[in-house]
Amino acid sequence: MTAPEGTEFSRPITPESLGEKGKVLSIEANADERSRLARRLGLDGLEALSAEIRLSPRRGGRMVRLEGTFKALVRQICVVTLEPVEDHIEGSIERIYDTTFEGLENEDEIIDMDGDEPPDPLIGGKIDAGEAVAEQLALEINPFPRKKGTTFAGYSAGPTRDKDGGGVSGDETGKTAAPSASPFVGLKKLTNKLKKTKAE
Fold this sequence. Notes:
Elements: E1 12-13, E2 23-28, H1 31-41, E3 45-58, E4 63-77, E5 84-102, E6 120-122, E7 127-128, H2 129-140, H3 183-199
Parallel strand pairs: 5-6
Antiparallel strand pairs: 1-7, 2-3, 3-4, 4-5
């Protein structure tokens, strides 16, 4: 994957610097990098991000395997209460880079030597370990964060079921019961309540 221009958490490594035995890296994002990366990932905040990475040459140096683990502390907004919620994320990462290809427009030209996914090309002749971690973090982030113990109960927009679960409940005329309020109604009430509290 091509790194975006102005990568927020960049740790570039040249394949030539790895030698025959490879290299182990301990990388950590500083405050400015975390702030910019949080904006890119749509987070309310990124309190910590670090990784332990190993880069190993394969196939005579043509291929390079990047593998390791990372840890992050992210802050998001609860989709129910709109309150900040923190989440500790721990994940693993593994990628293959082909040092003979760099920035190809046609990814079909990249030959998959290991039989899994096509290897990544180098960017500017380098492997960006920081960007690889940032992209993997993006995949691990919860798209619907919720505060612990919070449920969607009371926010259902669908019709209710009878106590036996055999159908939609209704009155004696056979009409179905009115659906519960939309979740957006609940959010609007919460927003108005927060505004009122600030005004006081």
